[in-house]
Write a structure and sequence with these properties.
3 helices; seven-stranded mixed sheet; about 190 residues
């Protein structure tokens, strides 16, 4: 009996030496002009991406035990520093799939639509968004995190986020507006 109790105490103390870890952020895969900050914790992949141009960013993670036991949630803040509106973000997973899609919160009103198919999700905005987008509940404002399913301990996961080019009619309207501003400025200088 004492041997069993001693073995149980030894096993419990050794288990306390190796706490569960969160998904390990392995870094940005490839190169990107976007600034990335990771805030992941046990069972949660969380990051901020600051887009200063229309580009994509791929973030690498290794899945740990704590991520599989309670399920893996996902949230992010995507900041638009391009100076123009972004009409969509696309998300791609290298492994696993999106389980439940949570909320998308915009800063400048309008509507958003989420379309997902397994490992891919597209979030579109009408009208285009000019500032931050919250995917899930990164700021604790009552949103719902997205979930990622189908991963095992030790799996590598790459998440690619792409800020899409505005629709051609949006770009045409922007260019014509800038042309009008230039024309008015020139006329005022002449008159």
């Amino acid at each position: 009996m004492n041997k069993h109790l001693l073995a149980l105490v030894a096993a419990a103390s050794l288990a306390g030496l190796a706490p569960a870890q969160a998904a390990t952020f392995t870094g940005v895969v490839g190169s990107t002009s976007a600034d990335v900050a990771d805030f992941s914790t046990d069972g949660l992949i969380a990051f901020d991406i600051d887009f200063s141009s229309l580009t994509s960013a791929t973030l690498g993670y290794t899945i740990d035990a704590a991520d599989v036991l309670g399920g893996l949630s996902f949230n992010a803040v995507l900041r638009n520093y391009t100076g123009g509106g972004i009409d969509r973000y696309t998300f791609g997973l290298s492994s696993g799939s999106f389980g439940n899609l949570g909320t998308v919160t915009r800063n400048f009103g309008g509507s958003s639509n989420i379309v997902f198919n397994g490992a891919d999700a597209i979030v579109t905005f009408s009208p285009a968004e000019f500032y931050d987008i919250e995917i899930g509940d990164p700021l604790g404002n009552g949103g719902v995190n997205w979930t990622i399913a189908g991963l095992n301990v030790g799996d590598s996961l790459n998440i690619t986020v792409t800020s899409a080019v505005p629709e051609p009619e949006t770009l045409a309207m922007l260019l014509s507006g800038l042309g009008m501003v230039g024309w008015i400025t020139r006329r005022r200088r002449q008159g």
